[in-house]
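Issue 218. Parser rejects a valid record. Input:
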Amino acid sequence: MDPSTGVKLVGSIQQTLAQGDAQCWSVLAVPDSGKQSPGRLDHDCFVRSGDIVEEFNVEVNEDSSFSSLSFSQTDKTVVAELRTVLEEYHSGS
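Output the parser choked on:
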């Protein structure tokens, strides 16, 4: 149930990147209307270094299909940048 609209939602999840220290996931939630309707896509990437996790989030409204967006290049870029941030944090820069 979408708390802001009261509409019943159904969803799907798809892992888009799986590495030892990084994962990216997309979650698509659409109205349960029996037809393909626009919904909300949340895409998150997580990178871990020791006991610290960095996260990157993209939200896309009015999307109805995983096939309409590809995060493969974005995932690679974001994960590399998050790793750099974590390395800088650990080195004290």
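Fixed in the parser; the record now loads. The mean pLDDT is 85.
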